[in-house]
Design goal:
The chain is an all-alpha fold and 74 residues long. It contains four helices and no strands. Helices cover 50% and strands 0% of the residues. It is elongated, with a radius of gyration of 16 Å. 3% of the residues are buried.
């Protein structure tokens, strides 16, 4: 993620913070967001706004794509 993209995401989340619902979907675990964002200060600010008052649903198990390729699901 470029610094410009991280800044835009932070601006969006700041505008919506505690005024509107936001749904985020990611295949990247939260602990790896710091590396993806590349700036610890911006990552802290983003995660602060996302995680405060949030409901996190973390799915586990094998990828449905892998299961389909192996013939385990129809």
């Amino acid at each position: 993620m470029s610094q410009e993209q991280a800044g835009h995401l932070l601006e969006l989340l700041e505008d919506r913070y505690q005024t509107a619902s936001t749904i985020m979907v990611s295949q990247l675990p939260v602990k790896e967001w710091y590396n993806m964002i590349g700036n610890a200060t911006v990552a802290d600010a983003l995660l602060d706004r996302l995680i405060h008052n949030s409901h996190r649903i973390e799915l586990g198990g094998e990828s449905m794509r892998k299961l389909a390729q192996s013939g385990q699901i129809g």
